[in-house]
Amino acid sequence: MISQYEEKGKIFTPVINKEPKKVIIQTIHHKITGTVYVRPSDRLIDELNKNEKFLAVTEAIVHDLVDQILFKCDFLTVNSDQIIWILPIEELKPGDTND
Predict the structure, then answer these.
(1) What's the average model confidence in pLDDT over 57-81?
(2) Nearest to 57, CA basis, from 89, 16, 95
(3) How far apart are CA 57 and CA 31, in angstroms?
(4) What is the mean pLDDT of residues 60-78?
(5) Residue of 56, 88, 89 whose CA lies nearest to 75
(6) Rounded to 10 degrees, what is the CA torsion of 26, 70, 52, 87?
(7) Where is pLDDT greater, at 50 or 14?
(8) Which of 2, 3, 10, 34 pairs as cysteine with 57 (C-beta 3.0–4.6 A)?
């Protein structure tokens, strides 16, 4: 990795570009909708498989188990161990109804 130093000793590193992915995250007690950021060459699962303890979510909306909104926030971190499943909203397909 290439690093540059400021005269006062601050280290500058190259910016890592990431793409936003709108997702639904299910935990044991909550459903969270929001945006996570993934490197262009990675999949969402690659982001989860990193050694990071928490997953950063922006524009987060936290719902309870009956889908009522508990709160909204600009930034939220979710403990990766608490995630049951995560779904990219772009892959969401309408359910089959028998009406």
Answers:
(1) 96
(2) 89
(3) 12
(4) 97
(5) 56
(6) 30
(7) 50
(8) 34
